[in-house]
Here is the input.
Amino acid sequence: MDWPALRFHPRPRIEPVAVEGRVVCHVIDDALVDPGAWRDFAVAQASAFRESPGNAFPGSELRLPDDAVMPLGDVFNEHFRRAFDARRLERLYARLSIVDRPPASLKPTQWQAHVDRLDIGPGETIAASVLYLFEDESLGGTAFYRPRRPAAETVAMIQDAATMAPEAFAARHGVAPGYQTASNAWFEKVASVPARWNRLIVYPGTIFHSGEITRPEALDPHPSRGRLTLNAFFSCRRRAA
Here is the structure.
């Protein structure tokens, strides 16, 4: 499989998104030199997108080879490593993704904000990024949340979401089916970053977040029309105290 060059502009303008003095997200607009090449690549590989049973992502994905996305690792190392208290980047995982599930088919784990990893050890940190590769901004950006309940209650609720039948989970925890786009009894929405063509956002993997899907009826499974993104995850060793 041949993939296009992942070329970033060399001097990006990085805009922080802060809530109460804490940066929850970093934004780079016009991130790629040729973003259209990546959408064209996704269109050419449309038949290769698949849903991943082990992933809570509400749609289909195409895993990208490490070699294809190492320039994104270089961007992280140069511009964001210190912001995430990272000493070195150990693993980079990336995929092209399309949110395409109708609300009625979502699982309870997909009804609410999530973190990318709950079991980060004391010597590790994780960051995530989303590169928007669609032009219809109404398909939704990304929203950030903070828990309203004690950590133990939140973890127990998330575990129930993964194991309980939808009706039982909704009755026990009062979480409504569908994409979360606003505060509820469990999570308070604290920030929202709109989607924009060729916009890259980078954020801590341990902050609760979700795609802000306010128009699910507009979702489309084809890369030429759908909510196509390049998602990446950066696992790092923390800097020594």
Observations:
- The CA atoms of residues 111 and 158 lie 11 Å apart.
- The chain is about 20% helix and 30% strand.
- Helices lie at 35-44, 66-79, 151-163, 166-173.
